[in-house]
Amino acid sequence: MNILIVEDEKSLVLEVYEFLTKEGFTVENAHTKRSAEEKILVNNYDFILLDLGLPDGDGFDLLTTLKKIKNREDAVIILTARGSVDDRISGLEQGADDYLAKPFSLNELLARIHAITRRKHKLESNEIAIKGFRINIQNRTIYYNDDRINLTKKEFEIFNYLVLNKKRVISRTNLTEHVWGDILEINSDSNFVDVHVKNLRKKLAQFAPIDWFETVRSIGYRINI
Amino acid sequence: MKLQIKLALYNALTKLAIILFTGTLILFSLQRITYHHIATRLLQKKGELTSHLSSKEISQILSQEKSFIDYNILPEEYIDIEPLKTLYNSETEVTFSTEPRTIDKKTETYRILKSGFNYNGRGYSLEIGETIDGIDELKSTIKGFTLLMLLIAVSLTLLIDLIFTRYLLRPFYQIIDRKLVKVNDPMNFDYEKVITSTQDFKMLDDSISSLMIKITNLFTLEKQFIANVSHELLTPISIISSRLENILQQEGLSEENENKIFASLKTLDRLKSIIKSLLLISQIENNQFNKNAQVNIRDMVKEINEEFEDRLDDKKVTIINHVKNSFSMPANLSLMYTLLYNVISNAIKYNYEQGTITISDKLDNDTYTLEIADTGIGMDQREIEKAFNRFEKLDTGEKESYGLGLAIVKSITAFHNIKVQIASKKNIGTTFKLIFEGQA
């Protein structure tokens, strides 16, 4: 899949580029509205990561330009530091697929990209298999062989996020933010997310050993496969 | 003392002084004038007497022995002649005095002319008197009248002055009330002029308005500054955070370094939270939110309680929800959510383990009150006063508190015209009241 990053902050582009490349995406950059426009008109992208505050114009204009072109399926994720509610609403109204406020976690970005991919392309295999567990993202269910495991909404979210970001340590803060959303002054030091993880593991462990579901001391969790 | 009363008193006192002064002046000059008139009359009589002197008349007066002059219509006068052993040596010398005399068994005060004359080689002393009791009566009448006038004048003046100064000063109090007392936020200042013809008040009004414009400009500048700075800081944080995340991907990273990087990410999260909170406050204060949702408080409280289940379990805190009324108001959905979320979050955060939180409500006429009471560590008076200040936090074991939660609550409640009251006792608990006035 190919992704276009439209962002004038070069250091940030570099980091997103590095991360997404490692994830196996083909990544291109555009630092200005003009160069982005040229690229968009020439190529089809699976994803466009769009910053709103560009040196030579508003990122919203690119969105409008894109939406005028017929038969384009490019998914747009707006990345912005503006963070105002109005921006979020008008961004989504103008056809953006998602909206991520800066600063965002790269893990979160990846999760959003996956979510949009599944939604947009109605993937045939809506299932992720992991060590005999099958996660059906569409129905939000988990099976082990033919046994359905009853997970709560939050337990499912946690597991899904960890699986999506497998092999990576996910901090409690990151996990909390993903599952509970971006609520200000959230008490991330509190370990209430642990309670859910504990319950989740108990439920999974009934079916198979889950030594791959690691707790990383004082930091968070990792699914190590 | 109020200016109005001061002015009225001042006016009353000056009037009192003027009336007293004129009163004394009138009384004094009245005496002088009447004495002068009496003296003239007495002298005239003396002249008449001495010019028409005859033996018969003298003997007649002598025989009468102090009686009223019969040829005078006025009974208040008398003439008295006493023969002297010698000649009267200074016929022109005349003295006046005020003395009591008894005539016809009636004692009265007289103004008396004392003199003498010689007739047919004999000397006589002469007294002509005119009663002044009448004048004294007149004087006391005037005194009484003056006093009465004084009383009436003073009370009338007081009354009229009070009414007039009240009328006169009304614009002043309007300015105080509308432009100073009721101003909570310089952004919503009422620039409409107070109607007055008094130039001083116009000046006051204008001065306050221009001062407010200056303050508002400074405020706007500060808010813009906060908004801009916050916004500009978010991008660098994003860069650092992404970079650290990428470093974490590298293989062969030692556990020690990994921990350090996670610690750094956590610090960045803290920075992000603070900046976002400040940004939110400044956006609320700049009225960048609308109130286009009809928010039902009861439903929202229920929703938030469900959201908090994890934290409640974690801390073994119980929420007792007594909210009965289905109260709705036009508000901003996400702000109202944040408001209630923060208040209940504090009730959990500052509660003891196994504590309780009681949420109840009350609907009185058009005032709806939501009460959130916890059994937590509580605050003393000093802490309550500072609770809404930015970066003010209670000294607790909780590390992740930035002291912005209540500052956000304050700006959201101000935005929605909700009154907030905190009652708290150290180690017993805090009760948080949200009062929705006139919105029911």
Summarize the structure.
The complex is a heterodimer of chains A (225) and B (440). Chain A has 225 residues and is of the alpha/beta class.
Q: Care to describe what's here?
A:
The complex is a heterodimer of chains A (225) and B (440). Chain A has eight helices and 14 strands. With 225 residues, chain A is of the alpha/beta class. Chain A has two domains: 2-121, Rossmann fold (3-Layer(aba) Sandwich), CATH 3.40.50.2300; 127-223, Arc Repressor Mutant, subunit A (Orthogonal Bundle), CATH 1.10.10. In chain A, strand 10 (141-144) and strand 11 form a beta hairpin. In chain A, helix 2 packs parallel to helix 3 (59-68), helix 6 (153-164) packs across helix 7 (172-180) and helix 6 (153-164) packs across helix 8. Chain B is an alpha+beta fold and 440 residues long. Chain B folds into three domains: 3-137, no CATH class; 210-285, Helix Hairpins, CATH 1.10.287; 293-437, 2-Layer Sandwich (Heat Shock Protein 90), CATH 3.30.565. Chain B contains ten helices and twelve strands. Chain B has helices at 3-51, 55-64, 133-181, 199-249, 255-285, 297-307, 309-315, 333-349, 381-386, 405-416, and strands spanning 67-68, 77-83, 95-103, 106-119, 122-131, 293-296, 318-322, 328-331, 356-364, 367-374, 418-425, 429-437. In chain B, the strands form three sheets. Chain B has a five-stranded antiparallel beta sheet with strand order 1-2-5-4-3. A five-stranded mixed beta sheet of chain B has the order 7-9-10-12-11, covered by helices on one side. A two-stranded antiparallel sheet of chain B has the order 6-8. In chain B, helix 3 (133-181) packs parallel to helix 4. Chain B is rod-shaped, with a radius of gyration of 48 Å. The two termini of chain B are 41 Å apart. The chains are: A alpha/beta (225), B alpha+beta (440). Chains A and B meet through helix 1 and helix 8 of A and helix 4, helix 5, helix 7 and helix 8 of B.
